[in-house]
Amino acid sequence: MHLILWRHAEAAEGGDDLNRALTKRGRKQALRMGAWLAGRLPPDCRILVSPAVRTRQTAEALGLPHEVCPGIAPQATVDDLLAASGWPAGKGNVLLVGHQPALGELAAQLLCGEAAAWSLRKGSICWLKSRLREGQIQTLLRAVMPVELLP
């Protein structure tokens, strides 16, 4: 199972948290990462998006169908993200478009065995894969890509 964690791109400050939209810079970030992901995502990848405007706008940059998932809203926990994704034994592959701190904490937990205060930069992704090796589920780090490194 592939699990891709995508933090929403830069959003405007202030106002109602769920209604904050991407800034001009954020729209550019989303388009750059969306173009990078579009050519790499597994064909059966489910795209789950927080109900926040900024995450929906980030996901729209991919140009692929996605579904809004209330379980990964800004206040979501690591357990909420795990439940939404079905990690590690879920069928298929999942891209979660969500928020800090839960995305960073989830990446830390899956790679180190416990949640920690890791941070994903706005617009960046962390791509993980689960595999069964010698009877144990392992987590592989496939990529961490900050949007600043994309062409």
Describe this structure in words.
The structure is a single chain. This protein is of the alpha/beta class and 151 residues long. It has one domain (2-149): Phosphoglycerate mutase-like (Rossmann fold). It is 28% helix and 25% strand. The protein has helices at residues 24-38, 53-60, 78-85, 102-112; strands at residues 2-7, 45-49, 67-68, 93-98, 125-133, 136-145. It has a six-stranded mixed β-sheet with strand order 3-2-4-1-5-6. The chain is globular, with a radius of gyration of 14 Å. The model has no long low-confidence stretch (mean pLDDT 95).
CATH architecture: 3-Layer(aba) Sandwich
| Helix-strand category | alpha/beta
Number of helices: 4
CATH third-tier fold name: Rossmann fold
Strand order of the largest sheet: 3-2-4-1-5-6
Overall geometric form: globular
Mean model confidence by pLDDT:
95
Major sheet size, sense and barrel closure: 6 strands, mixed
CATH class: Alpha Beta
Written as H for each helix and E for each strand, in order along the chain, the element string is EHEHEHEHEE
CATH level-4 homologous superfamily:
Phosphoglycerate mutase-like
Q: Tell how many strands the DSSP assignment holds.
A: 6
Radius of gyration: 14 Å
What is the straight-line distance between the termini? 28 Å
| Beta-strand residue fraction | 25-35%
Query: What share of residues is helical?
Result: 25-40%
